[in-house]
């Protein structure tokens, strides 16, 4: 297991951030695992739509959702459903938390129910999968290090997926094309190639992905753009063209619609680690 870790130090203390990206076939259902331990640098965080489902396991004080619907206080294990607008989260002064970022196929298999049931929601994991949630959180809490926690979650996810039906092949294929194109492939072309009516394709996507195909593509492109900016792409005009927006004003409008801020505001608020899925929302913690 090749884990990438970044460590830093702030006026509030030392922190560490670790990630692991699986190889195939697990990569088809799991984007990556991440783990953060250390002081909270900003008490309020903005979480952007990214086309993924996030399962979080918390080993410290609870989090509070300031916007969005569903569970307000998130304590041990919870799921963030597909989003089309940013979430504002109040974080505890110190964090020890890990996340399992699932691709649509992994989320559909994990839940064993329509993903549309949790679209726009934060939901306690136990309400969705029962006692297995408590067992998973307990095993991870008892693990001796980050690598052990990652191994436990990866193995648990493989077993969970094996017990449930996967998404329809045509939906999995369309999701793959959208992801590979960074959200820019024409949805009409995908639908015609798949031989589906518009109504049928939208219905299948909403059930198994949680979003209609065009909305999912918008979110994927937005996240792809955030990742480019997070990685250091500086010229906004070039980023807009690379992400296949009509122009920079079009990109700015999508940022406001899906992220609630402008690209320049994101650059000022982005975290020093991660893929651009989150940014600070407010002054530094003291």
Task: Summarize the topology.
Elements: E1 4-10, E2 13-20, E3 30-39, E4 44-47, E5 53-58, E6 63-65, E7 69-70, E8 73-74, E9 77-80, E10 87-90, E11 94-102, H1 104-111, E12 121-124, H2 125-129, H3 132-142, H4 146-162, H5 169-180, H6 187-194, H7 198-208, H8 213-230, H9 236-242, H10 248-259, H11 263-269, E13 278-280
Parallel strand pairs: 7-12
Antiparallel strand pairs: 1-2, 2-3, 3-11, 4-10, 4-13, 5-9, 5-11, 6-8, 6-10, 9-12
Helix pairs in contact: 3-4, 5-6
CATH architecture group name of the largest domain: Sandwich
Strand order of the main beta sheet, please? Answer: 1-2-3-11-5-9-12-7
Tell me the structural class: alpha+beta
Number of helices: 11
Distance between the termini: 36 Å
Average of per-residue pLDDT values: 93
Described by the principal axes of the CA atoms, the overall outline is globular
SSE string: EEEEEEEEEEEHEHHHHHHHHHHE
CATH topology of the largest domain: Jelly Rolls
Q: What's the Cα radius of gyration? A: 18 Å
% residues in beta strands: 15-25%
CATH hierarchy class name of the largest domain: Mainly Beta
